[in-house]
Design a protein that fits this description.
The protein is mainly α and 77 residues long. The protein has a domain of 45 residues. It is built from 3 helices and no strands. The termini are far apart.
């Protein structure tokens, strides 16, 4: 029966420390702008829809996001 050798600190190989990956700003910026616009739309949709600036008529949107409004501390009634 063969036994596996257990590496000891003296037999372990040394490696260089990890180098952080550099990500150019021009690659991140479009995604950051997109996510910012999406977040602003979602905050509007949850917080202000069915108010004075309503895009959709009726109460369907209000009822759909009602609990989310309370979770995010938006007053709705």
């Amino acid at each position: 029966m063969a036994t596996a050798a257990v590496p000891t600190p003296s037999s372990a190989t040394t490696s260089a420390p990890p180098v952080p990956v550099r990500i150019p700003v021009r690659e991140v910026l479009p995604w950051a702008v997109f996510m910012g616009a999406l977040m602003l739309f979602l905050i509007y949709f949850v917080g202000a829809e069915q108010g004075a600036t309503a895009i959709f008529s009726g109460t369907g949107v209000h009822e759909f996001v009602h609990d989310g409004r309370h979770l995010l501390a938006f007053p709705c009634h």
